[in-house]
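Good morning,

Attaching, inline, the backbone tokens for the sequence recovery test we're adding to the shared suite. The designed sequence is right after.
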């Protein structure tokens, strides 16, 4: 599944149990019977997908996939299984981002409910799922976006208990028909946190006025204003007008409400990357089939040099998206209170996979050209979604900022202690590249090979223990991922430790461009040691994002190689993918070099990261052979 594209007509979903296979196949069969003509027509005419939701209700799709085992009432097929949820996300993205969206926001709406200690609310949600209802996540507001400290959804205590809620929410998927809407708000009788002061550590008392509660979109005091997008999906603006909130409707209060918001995003928005993968796979089939069958000036379009480059890069990029996503599932499913590495890999799934999908779509647009605008093509229908996924509530900005919190602990394993000496060597920031490479390499080698001795130092012994994790297995077993609903506080990210990232790159260093990329990664590590960002730079978001573009490429590449080892991926495709990574890493290094805030040392060391990938006509031809073989392999039923 990670080495080839998903083909609905041949995929058998063999990695899953019988009932999961049946429901995944039933979903594919539903869309193929629905047909491409009707699919595109209903998208253009913005027809609410009642027919699809009737199928969901009839087959109990959402009920089976989205009910945790604790709420399953003894049904052995109900569980929260990240692997099969991800597969459903890919299938729905493959057929239309609008179908993925109704599923995605139902997942988000359920997040605060399944995390709650409110047994009554959870029982109500399970019953609504069983009856085919959808859910919504009422967090965002038009004036405040995702700045939830500043929420204007205000709850006033009422005599005899409970509250009266008044305020508006904006950009709320499924807000038109959701059986339960998980709404974030604040109490009128408690102080509000100044969001401009968010970097300060808040007290429990300051958090005490915030809460999550469940609302019903059918209630008379729930005022649906409009659909804020011109689309088949319904993205609601709604107001609550003296909406009665009973104690039985309260899901979370205080700091736990903020944790529930963050942890829901960890669980739900993980699926952004899988929706992107599905959409890109469908688009890839269309683009290659069109280009390979079109003759211009006596040549197939796929024979033009610029098209060959676009297709080779796009195919490798897509395989990389799939490899990363499949391995990220394992980290999500194996997570526990002592292993929270999934929080970094989750952020990259949301940010990097969706952005690679956007870039792939742009490149395929240059291949498919005018055909990509015609009204019988999937390509234009998914285009808005592909450009939207990285931008949903600041997905890239939020997740880049989140990822940067992990950078020191990811880049510097405890075995790298000696590398810290670089910053104390006179002139290390501006010394010749060769000298810095030699010194940093020697320090790194010394650190890693002297690790047993270093462990004797009490402080480092503790750090080594915290960075020791058992190998993460492939997780496609029929288990309930119950930890995701008891993730605990969303703080403490700086305490998460990672295993040494270099090991898997060294295993694949026989592939030419993996070796080049490893050189770049080590040079980046030396940059961080020799020219550490200053206190002022650590407050400069523009500068940090340039640094983050470099950093996040490393864990992205790491998980790709881990999955490549598991799946036995084609080394020609990996070489092409890392050819792409070398080019993009070099571009990001030049961006860092030109940043006004960069110090002279950082400018100098940033140029150490620039490399030229190693070309290979043989490898390129092998990848192109796989790309052109896609022509005619899949066409959706008319």
């Amino acid at each position: 599944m990670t080495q080839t594209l998903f083909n609905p007509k041949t995929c058998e979903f063999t990695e899953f149990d019988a009932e999961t296979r049946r429901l995944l196949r039933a979903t594919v069969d539903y869309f193929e019977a629905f047909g491409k003509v009707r699919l595109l027509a209903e998208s253009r005419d913005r027809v609410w997908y009642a027919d699809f939701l009737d199928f969901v209700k009839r087959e109990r799709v959402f009920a089976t996939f989205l009910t945790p085992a604790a709420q399953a009432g003894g049904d052995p097929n109900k569980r929260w299984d990240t692997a099969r949820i991800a597969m459903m996300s890919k299938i729905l993205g493959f057929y239309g981002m609008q179908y993925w969206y109704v599923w995605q926001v139902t997942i988000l709406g359920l997040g605060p409910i399944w995390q709650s200690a409110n047994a009554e609310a959870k029982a109500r949600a399970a019953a609504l799922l069983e009856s085919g209802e959808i859910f919504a996540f009422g967090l965002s507001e038009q004036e405040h976006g995702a700045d939830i400290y500043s929420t204007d959804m205000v709850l006033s205590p009422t005599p005899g208990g409970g509250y009266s809620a008044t305020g508006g929410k904006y950009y709320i998927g499924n807000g038109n028909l959701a059986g339960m809407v998980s709404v974030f708000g604040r109490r009128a009788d408690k102080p509000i946190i100044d969001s401009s002061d968010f970097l300060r550590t808040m007290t429990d008392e300051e958090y005490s006025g915030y809460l999550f509660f469940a609302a019903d979109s059918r209630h008379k005091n729930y005022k649906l204003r409009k659909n804020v997008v011109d689309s088949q999906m319904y993205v609601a603006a709604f107001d609550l007008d003296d909406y009665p909130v009973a104690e039985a409707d309260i899901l979370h209060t205080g700091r736990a409400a903020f944790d529930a918001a963050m942890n829901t995003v960890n669980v739900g928005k993980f699926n952004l990357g899988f929706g992107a993968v599905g959409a890109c796979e469908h688009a890839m089939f269309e683009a290659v089939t069109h280009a390979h069958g079109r003759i211009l000036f006596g040549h197939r379009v796929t024979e033009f040099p610029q098209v060959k480059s676009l297709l080779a890069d796009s195919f490798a990029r897509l395989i990389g998206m799939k490899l990363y996503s499949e391995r990220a599932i394992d980290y999500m499913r194996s997570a526990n209170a002592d292993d929270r590495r999934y929080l970094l890999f989750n952020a990259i799934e949301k940010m990097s996979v969706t952005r690679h999908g956007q870039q792939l779509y742009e490149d395929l647009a240059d291949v498919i050209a005018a055909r990509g605008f015609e009204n019988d093509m999937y390509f234009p229908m998914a285009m808005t979604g592909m450009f939207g996924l990285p931008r949903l509530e600041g997905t890239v900005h939020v997740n880049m900022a989140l990822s940067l919190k992990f950078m020191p602990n990811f880049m510097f394993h405890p075995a790298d202690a000696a590398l810290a000496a670089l910053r104390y060597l006179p002139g290390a920031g501006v010394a010749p590249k060769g000298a810095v490479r030699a010194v940093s390499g020697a320090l790194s080698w010394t650190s890693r090979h002297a690790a047993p001795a270093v462990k004797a130092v009490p402080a480092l012994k503790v750090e080594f223990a915290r960075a020791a994790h058992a190998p993460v297995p492939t997780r496609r077993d029929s288990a309930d991922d119950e930890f995701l609903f008891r993730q605990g506080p969303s703080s403490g990210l700086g305490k998460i430790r990672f295993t040494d990232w270099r090991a898997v790159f060294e295993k694949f260093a026989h592939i030419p461009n993996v070796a080049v990329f490893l050189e770049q990664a080590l040079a980046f590590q030396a940059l961080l040691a020799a020219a550490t960002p200053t206190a002022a730079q650590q407050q400069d978001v523009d500068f940090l994002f340039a640094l983050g573009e470099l950093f996040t490429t490393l864990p992205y590449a790491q998980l790709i190689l881990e999955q490549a080892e598991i799946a036995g991926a084609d080394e020609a495709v990996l070489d092409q993918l890392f050819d792409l990574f070398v080019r993009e890493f070099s571009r990001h290094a030049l961006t860092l070099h030109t940043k006004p805030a960069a110090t002279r040392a950082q400018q100098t060391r940033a140029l150490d990261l620039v490399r030229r990938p190693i070309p290979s006509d043989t490898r390129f031809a092998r990848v192109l052979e796989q790309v052109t073989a896609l022509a005619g392999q899949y066409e959706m039923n008319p």
